[in-house]
Amino acid sequence: MAIERIIIVGGGTAGWMAAAALSRIKAGRPVEIALIESEAIGTVGVGEATIPPFVGFNDLLGIKESEMLSAVGGTFKLGIQFENWNRIGDSYIHPFGAYGYTMGGISFHHVWHRMARAGDKRPIQVFNLETMAAYFGKFARTEDYAREDLPPVNYAYHLDAGRYAAFLRRFAEERGVVRHEGRVADVALDGESGFVTSVTLDDGRSFAGDLFIDCSGFRGLLIEQALKTGYDDWSYYLPCNRAVALPCQREDGSPPPPFTRATAHRAGWQWQVPLQHRNGNGHVYCSSYMEDQEALDILLGNIAGKPQAEPNWLRFTTGRRKKFWNKNVVALGLAAGFMEPLESTSIHLINTGIDKLISLLSLDGITQVQEDTFNRLTGREYARIRDFLILHYNATQRTDSDFWNYVRTMEVPDSLTEKVALFKANGQIFREEDELFTETSWAAVMMGQGITMGGHNAMADALDPAKTRHEVDEMEKSIRYLVQHMPGHGDYLARYCPAPMAA
User: Fold this and answer.
1) Of the residues 26, 77, 228, 306, which is catalytic?
2) Which of 122, 184, 303, 335 has the smallest CB count inside 10 Å?
3) pLDDT, tens only, 116-135
């Protein structure tokens, strides 16, 4: 059956990202796209951090970066600073962009390890532009200096999620997406195929569709409540199940840092997402080890200014739907699954879900092979991200609470055990297929949390020591030169994308 009407149930970041991306189809085919959302249902919108592929999503839509960042009070992000994760007092940055560059076909961390064994005292961080710029609060884009002998800058954004959804709503509506206000009261299924045929709102209006996108959040109105898809619970590995979020003013007048901060506490961790006009803050924790009031007290005791709203409490079960695409329903965002925002993957999973949907979508109808492929690829992506998040908890030397004792000693998936064992043996990291996290990502977190390389790739020993040292010295020099000449992050924002609400 041809797809002539696409219905998106739910707004927020997921709904409006889907609407904005799918609106591009209308230029080629006469497809009706409607989005149903209720003003009465709040969104999670707590100030979102993103990762570099998200820059490409906005580019693809033809959105002007400076205009978008100005509208959403956005800032730039060069990586994530992790504090207290291995031991209390420890700190490291997981940067965007690589350590050094490949030499003789070998990843740079092998070359660095060989030099360190020979007595070189420089930490690997000095060979990463994003880490050094983040430490000094500096920022520029690659096109600002456009010199081939200098490394590129890899970045993402911090956004006000509510403002970003509103920005995309204007974008999508200008391109023919029609928004309907209301709550879904009933979902009708076809007696034979089990496909969703229509949704009815609480005021009696009914909307028939051929393809439905479920962006209804944790409730999974279509994917779960109507289609009973089922859920894989991952809380054994990732036991945090609560969060309290709170925006605050930045009262010391300091510019926003160009990185997200994730600070580990007694039974979870706290995020700080710096926007132009405020900080987004939250405390993710496990209710088996911490009471709600204690979680709120810890958050209030560790924010940079006066709260600007009442605390927003969230409950969740980490995991994923057994299917992300079931019959004629595709779930995106929280309706598809949830993994805590430790590595800013929430918006990313919406983005890649939309990418896969658009790649597989045929307006001639829905086939089983489309559904199966979408589910296989998405399932693999969720599992790889899950393993990376588990690494942060499991690779710790903290013994100060029952929570840390649990995550440090729990059984972890074989896929993660193998990755860590290989790195400990000789620093080898295999990126499997199109997995999100790079070699640098894995190396940064493993080394940052005390997992050391026992050796390095034998090919590193075959490189000429004098030539290698000269090349590595030049690498460090060019990074230092670039960081010295970059403007401060606050100055850059004021010139490039000042937000009216930040003035």
Assistant:
1) 77
2) 122
3) 999 999 999 999 999 999 99
